[in-house]
Amino acid sequence: MTNYTLVPLRKIGTSTTKFCRSAALCIALAHLTMTDAHAVAFRLPNQDPEAIARGNAFAATADNPSAIYYNPAGITQLDGHHFTLGLYLVSAGTEFESSSGLKARTDTTFQPVPQLYYVYSPEESRFSYGLGVYAPYGLSLDWGDNNPFRTLAQNGQIVYATINPVVAYQVHRTLSIAIGPTINYSKAELERGIGVFPGDQFRFKGDGIDYGFNAGLFWHPHEKWAFGLNYRYATEIKYKGDSEASPFFPPTSSSGSVRFPQFAVAGVSFRPTENWNLEVNIDWTDWDNVNEIVFRDTSFGDIPFPLNYTSSFMYQFGVTRKLPNDFFVSAGYFFSENSSPEEFFNPIVPDSDLHLGSFGFGRRGERWNWAFAYHFGYNPGRDINNGTLADGTYKTLNHGFNLSATLKF
């Protein structure tokens, strides 16, 4: 981590003032990537209750409109019109304790994330069309203003919303492919202490837009076996906005560039009978491609800051049992590898290995489907010793709920 010293204001001249403002701004923006995911850096893989209940092992099932996210080739399994509205509620729970006994805890207020999907498959056509609006990255984390590492992290929020139209084509009755562009808007806010006086604070607000694509393949060669592949291209958001070091300096124009990595998912579904569906997925994220944040301040120019994330995997397993009267129940588990090296660890992204368990239930009727899911994420403690105020133990317990309803016509 960067070491720095702030001197009393009475000793700051004009050129030094410019440098201090720029330095404080750059140090703060070095940690712009904030989330509550804790084990997938700033990815948010939970996009539908039927999938969440199965530990997000859904790429080789992909038989509802959320396939637009999980594997868009799967929408060829749907007939007519399907319109889904969903709401994901997540609570970020992380506790910190230093070797000297200092403690901090994140705000555990539930945060809402809406989801919308629409699919249309015309009769006697090999084409299917879909539109998804969802948040594949983001959320927020708030440690409060008086935590033991306030000059490293107080609170931050990143909103990343994607509009994703897709087109899927049934090459053969057992094989479908799909592709579609992603239009991605993101807004970021960051607050952290400066370290001169109690209550001083650095704030940044900015937003940006970028474009990418996602693609999928769905192969169902046998009634008992299905295979799925999903790929999402990397994007880079260039945030433009304002920053302020309160109470020292007025707002100034600033910007930061954050890369959101590519990822790929492969899944296998086994259906021993028509009432059972078991699936295993491997989900890879190219965090190696997220090496630094490039920041530009109007008074100081371009400055890179290292993140040096490492690529990681999520190992996902899920099972669904059909019940009488169109009801179903599901359960799942997945393990998510840590992506943040200890040397570059920062509490605003308290990344760690995470165990996630889930269950859910729902009903698929003639005109309406509905589903509910709950999941938790748990890590008993990650010890950090990188020579900064962040040194200590971080324990994680997250809770999430997702509810959706689908109209078919």
Written description of the protein model:
There is one protein chain. The chain is 6% helix and 56% strand. It is mainly beta and 409 residues long. The protein has a single domain, classed as Outer membrane protein transport protein (OMPP1/FadL/TodX) (Porin, Beta Barrel). The protein has a 14-stranded antiparallel barrel. A hairpin with a 3-residue loop joins strand 14 (292-297) and strand 15. The model is unreliable at 1-37 (pLDDT under 50).
Radius of gyration: 23 Å
Strand content: over 45%
Number of domains: 1
Low-confidence stretches: 1-37
> What's the CATH superfamily, by name?
Outer membrane protein transport protein (OMPP1/FadL/TodX)
Q: Main sheet: which strands, in order across?
A: 1-4-5-6-7-8-9-12-13-16-17-18-19-20
Structure class: mainly beta
Question: What does the average pLDDT come to?
Answer: 87
CATH architecture: Beta Barrel
Annotation field: number of helices: 3
- H/E series: HHHEEEEEEEEEEEEEEEEEEEE
CATH topology heading: Porin
| Global outline | globular
Q: How would you characterize the largest beta sheet? A: 14 strands, antiparallel, barrel
Helix coverage percent: under 10%
Distance from first to last alpha carbon? 56 Å
What is the name of the CATH class? Mainly Beta
User: How many strand segments?
Assistant: 20
Layout of SSEs?
Layout: H1 14-29, H2 49-52, H3 67-70, E1 80-91, E2 94-97, E3 103-105, E4 111-121, E5 127-142, E6 155-172, E7 175-192, E8 201-222, E9 225-232, E10 235-246, E11 252-260, E12 263-270, E13 276-285, E14 292-297, E15 301-306, E16 312-322, E17 327-336, E18 354-364, E19 368-384, E20 392-408
Antiparallel strand pairs: 1-4, 1-20, 2-3, 2-20, 4-5, 5-6, 6-7, 7-8, 8-9, 8-10, 9-12, 10-11, 11-14, 12-13, 13-16, 14-15, 16-17, 17-18, 18-19, 19-20
